[in-house]
Amino acid sequence: MEKNNTLIKLKEKERELRQVLIIEAAREVFGQKTYDKASMAEIAKAAGISKSSIYTYFNSQEELYAQIAYQDACKFIKELNNRILSAGPDPVRAAIDYFLDFYIENASQWRMVTHFALHGNNEMGAVEQLNKTGRELMDVFEMMFVQAGCTSNTRIMAHTLFACLSGILIAFRNYPGRSEKDRITHMKKIGSRIEGLINIYISNG
Questions:
Q1: 112 within 8 A of 32, measured Cβ to Cβ
Q2: Domains in the chain and their CATH numbers?
Q3: CA dist., res. 85 & res. 196, Å (int)
Q4: Is the CB of residue 116 less than 8 Å from the CB of residue 55?
Q5: Gyration radius of the chain over CA positions
Q6: What is the DSSP string of 150-198?
Q7: pLDDT, tens only, 78-108
Q8: Average pLDDT along the chain
Q9: How many helical (H) and strand (E) elements, i.e. helices and strands, does the chain have?
Q10: Exposed / middle / buried, residue 183 (Cβ in 10 Å: 0-12, 13-18, 19+)
């Protein structure tokens, strides 16, 4: 019996390690290519396994993509929450700065966010995970508004802030005819304007 339990644990550990291997290989491929230009064959090659082996762990490329997006979003939300809690009397600036800085520096992760925002996801498990992280992000933004002194409409304000910051990145991250430095400076300026408008809204009650 003890021998059987040991074998079961070893197989479970092997399965976990194989999943991690596939996810990290996929993260590398998706970091270099957009979702529609990447393939399971490339991911399998990067992982050093057969393409069919991937389907033992993930039903589709979209499910694998969603799993990576979910893991990365969880890490992002945790750090965003920490930044806001340690920001003292200026949580709005902390949230806006971190959101923009993070996704400016992590372009592949922003591509994942926009992919699912624009195209959705048909994998039920992935849908539930992504919806969960979306709600958690709104919870953090809502907590930020409360911390900043906002007393009403905190949920809709959380949605508004996310829409504004997403709009900045979509509109100006790859704006043609400008240098990388100019694009970043411009996005941060717009972020500052949004911060100012939010603070006016909060001060007016």
A1: no
A2: 1-58 (1.10.10.60), 61-204 (1.10.357.10)
A3: 20
A4: no
A5: 20
A6: --S-HHHHHHHHHHHHHHHHHHHTT-TTS-HHHHHHHHHHHHHHHHHHH
A7: 999 999 999 988 999 999 999 999 999 998 8
A8: 89
A9: 9, 0
A10: middle
